[in-house]
Amino acid sequence: MDRIGVLDLGTNTFRLLIAGRTANHPLERNLMDRRVVRIGEGFVRSMRISIPSVKRGIKVLKEFASQLKRHGVDRVLSVATGVFREAGNAAEVIEEIEASCRFPIRVLTASEEGTYTLKGVRAGMNLSGTREALIVDIGGGSTEFVRTGPSGKDRVLSIPAGAVYLKERFEPSASSEPKAFSAMQQWIENTLEGVLSNVSDSDAMTCIGTGGSITTLSYMVMGLRRYDPARIHGALLTLDEVDRLLAEVRTGSCRMIQERFHLETGRADLVLYGGALTQGILRRLPSRSLTVSDYGLLEGLALEMLEDRKGDAAPGDTGRD
Fold this sequence. Notes:
The chain is α/β, with parallel strands linked by helices and 321 residues long. The chain is built from 14 helices and 12 strands. It has 2 domains: 3-109 and 298-319, Nucleotidyltransferase, domain 5; 126-292, Exopolyphosphatase. Domain 2 (Nucleotidyltransferase, domain 5, 2-Layer Sandwich), CATH 3.30.420.150. Strands 1, 2, 3, 4, 5 and 12 form a 6-stranded mixed beta sheet that branches. The longest helix is centred in the N-terminal third of the chain and has 20 residues, at 51-70. The two termini are 21 Å apart.
């Protein structure tokens, strides 16, 4: 079985997928790992990636490299998103990571990120009978909206706002003062205006949500004690559920949120911000709900690699030395 590895360096989380294909499955996920690195910490204030966050990232990537070696993976694609598109020192940070970890890194444009996310979502959900669909991918540093329809032309829009961005811009007042929280909600509303202004015209649209904020909210709403992709994937997340969840977490500390909902370290302090952004999006959808997808960017990139018959993946892919 052709086995490949994909690394996604996001603003909050670094993720690893080892996958292959069989006669019955065009994409078989063999191993998934994710670590909260928070490489976008401090970015809103400095517009740069900090030295401590780079060190955290390199440590995690070296651990991922060990897993790739242990599983005999030779073809690896490493991509960076979010803060790597915006930071003033992104090029030198990538150079340092590449020198330390020997992973060539490709920075995806927002359009590329949306396109590969759609490809991954399609791998996990049958959209063949769908007249029109909207894919929402909330990350740490940005949110992508992919609109696809019968014309075959996919439209990708992106806003430079994700859970980490909102936390850094509005903390600490938004988590403790009702007026400040309302101001953040209004900022989100204004930011979404140009992106989702015409969504209400299509009541038949299928709306799908992916990314860490949305899957975490679904996990919390379901009351799980351990993340279970099989239960998260395909679940429905509604505006009423997010409203109730936000009302609860706004009155609690990060420690309470982490213990109450059994969250991994580095997630609890982002729930309020990712939740507020999800809430703003849901308010603009006719159905007031999203179908949650555990498939997304990683799976789309993996499929691109596995489908290539020449052995070369998407531009930027190389084998490890």
